[in-house]
Amino acid sequence: MKKYEILDHPTDLKIRSFGKTKEELFSNMLGAMFHGARAEILTTPSPSFKRRGLRGGLVREIKIKSADEQSLLVDFLNEALTLSDINNEAYFEVKFKKLTGMELAAEIFSQPIEKMGLEIKAVTYHGVEIKKVSGGWEATVLFDI
Amino acid sequence: MFVKENFKKINNQLWEIPQSFRSDMRVPARVYASEKMLEHIFEDRSLEQLVNVTTLPGILKYGLAMPDIHEGYGFPIGGVAAMDAKHGVISPGGVGYDINCGVRLLVSSFSHSELSEQLVDLANQIARDVPSGVGRGGRIVLDEKEMVEVLEGGARRLVAQGYGVKDDLEKMEEDGCLLGADAAEVSQHAKDRGRDQLGTLGSGNHFLEIQRVEKIFLPEVAKIFGLHENQITVMIHTGSRGLGHQVCTDFVKIMDARLPEWGIKLPDRELACSPLDSPEGQRYFKAMAAAANFAWANRQMITDLVRKAWEKVLSHKINGKYNLDLVYDVAHNIAKFEEHEIDGRKTKVCLHRKGATRAFGPGRIEVPEVYRAVGQPVLIPGSMGTASYVLVGTEKAMAESFGSTCHGAGRRMSRAEARRQIGGQQLKKELEAQGIVIRCGSFTGLTEEASLAYKDIDEVVEVVDRAGLAKKVARLVPLAVIKGE
């Protein structure tokens, strides 16, 4: 099962993710967001890394409650985006402590970035969809860029 | 799906969807477009979004769309709506995620021939001095106290600190500071995002351009604006960065959760709104105003960086003065309390402009005194490598469009399609062959902003000129483009 695909959209970034479980679905959409943003990871210590006092492998906690599961996905991604902008990081790994229909608690693991190739302003509720498909789940999210 | 038969033609530039088109419309919807442009507007969901806007409680007269209309979230981009200030709603979707994304124009005393040899050096110095892209902060990191001062003082705060002169403030909407801002309503997340972003350009369609005045259409107005043919100008297009994006995100979520309590049913979640007299509505206005002030401060800081870069490169030609004067600064994503005549009565409204520019006509107190006799300068940037325009606001705009006009070319093609149609290196060569110096963060980012991905700015401006919403004063062409990714 592929993890995600970037769909064509006239103005913005539209991503569809897949997963056998909800955790996998959310996790794949998180990684897809940063792939879609063309995050350039700082993989080795560099002058930029040292000068900016960056560190990798930090754990950021996210705890949210939302009105429904679609909102939960959007709010989760928005929280990760906010942390990314504040800390100059990207997150491709997540460990869920809780993921119910309306509540989420997770740890996301940081990788410092040089820059993003595409600026995502926000994750929108516009047309957000989570649905059951053969083999698992599929989600579609639109990102304002 | 819309077809031309859904519209009533008011004139060659103006079309109306009557209120009877859909049962939940409270007012008609109007679109400024040529007949040819209208066919393309049918291709996305922007008209459906415009009709959705007309369902909002308290909307007055009509929902409007400018000729650069395209699909957005909630409101279409290029949307204008006036809400009754007492009984209407305020909607973050009617402002946009990039609160107070806007444009300013600086003019120099140099002509093109006097600076042609220094263009590359100027572009290089500006690209070095003005941070752009995402992930690179600015030179200043605001502490908590400084952040509050910027959010509540806007460009005024920056000028008081020596980043500019008092004259600059008179040449901005709201004198660079929207009253009613309250830093306490801006979340910690938003402040943390904006902390190192003051004086940064961002990326995407944000840019800095060195330009030449190619043509003057209204010589008397141009003279008052300080413009003449072949003059070198600098245009800056950017907004409130991550701070503004976060304010919008925060309040869409807050308002979405409260809608059932207010009995507001929306055809689109991203139209999330609150009554203006509700705590949430008032909190959003205060936070939005604070984010708008951050954007004005941002453009003021960038102006200071550009002026210093100018001095560094041209010190042998400038006698101690920075030589770049501000013509005007406009916001094109904002909501403001304004007074407009509706059904013969002066009415206070909350005017939402999302991808639309204020175009106040002669005599308005909000227009700087030096320009008041002719009207407000309106700055419309074109897509990369194409022309930008300076126009002047009109009395007709006051009567017909709540003193509003378009904001730019309007996107018409996906980034992926743009990348399929042209490569970054090829595009750079083509632009350089036109004599345009390019300094950008990546070829991918350059390609995605190619002019083929946008509507034709000349056509868009022609519509608003013929409609009388704003009249052409000058056409500017790029000599150097500096952008992030």
Structure description:
The complex is a heterodimer of chains A (145) and B (485). Chain A contains three helices and nine strands. Chain A has helices at 22-36, 47-51, 69-87, and strands at residues 4-7, 13-19, 39-41, 59-65, 89-99, 103-116, 122-123, 129-133, 136-144. In chain A, strands 1, 2, 7, 8 and 9 form a five-stranded antiparallel beta sheet that branches. By secondary structure, chain B is α+β, with helices and mostly antiparallel strands. Chain B is built from 15 helices and 19 strands. In chain B, α4 crosses α10 and α7 (188-194) runs antiparallel to α9 (241-262). The model of chain B has no long low-confidence stretch (mean pLDDT 95). Chain A binds chain B through residues 6, 8-11, 37-38, 40, 67, 71, 75, 78, 82, 85-86, 88, 113-119, 121-126, 142, 144-145, and chain B through 44, 70-74, 77, 97-98, 133-137, 189, 192-193, 195, 202-204, 242, 245-246, 248-249, 252-253, 256-257, 268-270, 411-417, 441-442, 444-445, 484-485.
Keywords, separated by commas or semicolons:
heterodimer, A: Archease, Possible Chaperone, Chain: A, domain 1, five-stranded antiparallel beta sheet, four-stranded antiparallel beta sheet, B: 485 residues, alpha+beta, tRNA-splicing ligase RtcB, seven-stranded mixed beta sheet, 34% helix
